[in-house]
Amino acid sequence: MLKPGVLNRRLVGEIISRLEKKGLKLVGLKLMNISTELASKHYAEHIGKAFYDSLVGYITSGPVVAMVWQGDDAVTLVRKLVGSTSPADALPGTIRGDFCLHTQCNIIHASDSAESAQREIDLFFSSAELIDWEDRASVWY
């Protein structure tokens, strides 16, 4: 998910391009506003933590780009492309390493496991919104 800061900074195409160039297959994409109720479901594991309110406040402050990517070991690959949650620890060349300065305004969310990915996909997409298509270029990656 590309968070509100990505849209404000006009980086949507740049981020999507990095994921495409890796060889991942985009099967779901939508621009949306997240309600406080949906944000609380998305961040349920953080309820009660000191940073919870700021997480919800940021994710609901503007539109996000929700996405679903497929590929061999997609969760691991996306997390490596995204980089460490802390911008100070995110290596140059990663999305967070190149575009993030503050953890609170982190520009991208990446699922941490296949189980989390499925839970999050179910929160943001109906099955009709996911398009499985034949990726004829996948043999080249």
SSE order and pairing:
Layout: H1 4-8, H2 12-22, E1 25-32, H3 36-42, H4 52-59, E2 64-70, H5 74-82, H6 95-99, H7 114-124
Antiparallel strand pairs: 1-2
Summarize the structure.
With 141 residues, the chain is an alpha+beta fold.
Structure description:
With 141 residues, this protein is α+β, with helices and mostly antiparallel strands. The protein is built from seven helices and two strands. The protein has a two-stranded antiparallel ribbon with strand order 1-2. The longest helix has 11 residues. The chain is globular, with a radius of gyration of 15 Å.
Measure the end-to-end span.
Answer: 23 Å
**Gross geometry:** globular
Taking the sheet with the most strands, its summary is: 2 strands, antiparallel
Written as H for each helix and E for each strand, in order along the chain, the element string is HHEHHEHHH
What gyration radius follows from the Cα positions, in whole Å?
Answer: 15 Å
Which structural class do the helices and strands define?
alpha+beta
Mean of all residue-level pLDDT scores = 94
Low-confidence stretches: none
Number of helices: 7
Strand content: 5-15%
What is the number of beta strands?
2
Residues in helices, as a percent range: 25-40%
Query: What's the arrangement of strands in the largest beta sheet?
Result: 1-2
Keywords:
141 residues; alpha+beta; 11% strand
